[in-house]
Amino acid sequence: MKSAVGAILAVALAAASYAITLPSGAVYIDPLLYNVVGANYTKWRNSSIVGFNPTNTAPPFIQVFDPSFLDIIGPSATIRAIASNPGFDFAHEAPIYVPDLNVVVFSNTGGGALGYSGWYNNSAVSMINMTEVDAALASTTGNVNIQVQTLHLPDTVQMVNGGTGPYKGDLLFVTSGRALLPPSIVRVNPRPPYNATVLLDNFLGRQFNSFNDVKILPGTDIIFFTDPAYGWFNGFRPEPMLPSQVYRFDPSTGQVRVVADQFAQPNGIAFTPDGKNVYITDTGVFEGFLGANSTRPTTIYKFDVDPRTQSFTNRRVFAFSDSGAPDGIQLDTMGNVYSGCGDGIHVWNTEGTLIGKFYLNSTTPQLTFTKSGLVILKETAMYVINIQAHGMTLST
Ligand SMILES: *[C@@H]1O[C@H](CO)[C@@H](O)[C@H](O)[C@H]1NC(C)=O
Ligand SMILES: *[C@@H]1O[C@H](CO)[C@@H](O)[C@H](O)[C@H]1NC(C)=O
Ligand SMILES: *[C@@H]1O[C@H](CO)[C@@H](O)[C@H](O)[C@H]1NC(C)=O
Ligand SMILES: *[C@@H]1O[C@H](CO)[C@@H](O)[C@H](O)[C@H]1NC(C)=O
Ligand SMILES: *[C@@H]1O[C@H](CO)[C@@H](O)[C@H](O)[C@H]1NC(C)=O
Ligand SMILES: *[C@@H]1O[C@H](CO)[C@@H](O)[C@H](O)[C@H]1NC(C)=O
Ligand SMILES: *[C@@H]1O[C@H](CO)[C@@H](O)[C@H](O)[C@H]1NC(C)=O
């Protein structure tokens, strides 16, 4: 995009950047400069897969759309790779930070290319030691490549796709199931021998579709999870036999019920720290072998959590992502919303204004906060960013 327009934008950008002081490696993108871009930009972004990088800055870098994002990233945020393996989509789903062990546990993709899993093969669950990451990062200014450890879990754990916790000291996973093996909610011991206990694998005798993500309602032990059709779309589960919807499960009574429906494909879930609201991401734009259709949702919906029934009420659009689709979703302690999209992690404030992106120029499905910063799963790589904001508490 080297052009007259580009040159004018660059000058305007330089002028605008006097107003705010950025960490090195961050770029201020004043929305006013891009409200009118002409026909060339339309060609450039004719697909939601292509990211929005109007300054042509080499990724990874931080895009600041609103000065309030500086309070989140702090003065010295840098994006650094901590593990990579170009031949294996090892870092895709279900990141759980375990503070006691200072590790992140996560899984690889179920189905897709480079996932090496499908109808006949389970996906892999791995662990990265953040103490080793911190030591390696302290010894250099660049990227590091820490060996991740594959965990040998019981066969009852098939296609881990979502995770949260620690839940009473355990990893809490939702699985997509595989072939005729059912999707399930499962507690896994984060320490050897990594034994597991399945809490739920059917709805009054009917198999679910393919669980995708899970969270605990703050202040309770109640488990909420999403059940889209990606197991079928990605070729490792039979055709769905239930709507793609969101459920509530009370492990103390065994009761399961639907709390929200009318989605294309409900994916990520995150409650606000006070438990009064919940966000659900809808990745309906992507339907596996049926292809992508950019007229379908890449949308985050916000709901009230009914104080008596815990059903999700008053659905409204919170945000629509301009790139890829919002997959995993996490909140910081101030209620800002972070979601993994097609070009990086997008961050919205509580009003739904896009205030910044951690721009990696590729799909970043998932993220989790750790003591070392925000850890990002980018399929064939993992990154950490030492931002100032802290994640809300997810453990029970
Ligand atoms: C648009 O792109 C064409 C072809 O790449 C180029 O010749 C032209 O200068 C561009 N126009 C503007 C306004 O940048
Ligand atoms: C999108 O733009 C690219 C680059 O100009 C072009 O190669 C591609 O054919 C366009 N795709 C569509 C669907 O218009
Ligand atoms: C399943 O695993 C086998 C043995 O490890 C491997 O040869 C095969 O390529 C895998 N299948 C897929 C779809 O990845
Ligand atoms: C992580 O690495 C540190 C430093 O090598 C080690 O002391 C610790 O036991 C490791 N933790 C786990 C859970 O393996
Ligand atoms: C793992 O095994 C221990 C010892 O039997 C048991 O106390 C614990 O509840 C088990 N954890 C899970 C998640 O199954
Ligand atoms: C995309 O989805 C819309 C709405 O569901 C549908 O009308 C349209 O035919 C689809 N387009 C393609 C190319 O599949
Ligand atoms: C972003 O990724 C696309 C597709 O992988 C690549 O063609 C493009 O050069 C990348 N852009 C930058 C600025 O690195």
TrEMBL record:
Gene3D superfamilies: TolB, C-terminal domain. The keyword tRNA-binding does not apply. InterPro entries: 6-blade_b-propeller_TolB-like, Oryzine_lactonohydrolase, SGL. Residues 195-360 form the SMP-30/Gluconolactonase/LRE-like region domain. Pfam families: SGL. The keyword Lipoprotein does not apply. It comes from the Eukaryota. Keywords: Signal. Residues 1-19 form the signal peptide. This is SMP-30/Gluconolactonase/LRE-like region domain-containing protein. It comes from Suillus luteus UH-Slu-Lm8-n1.
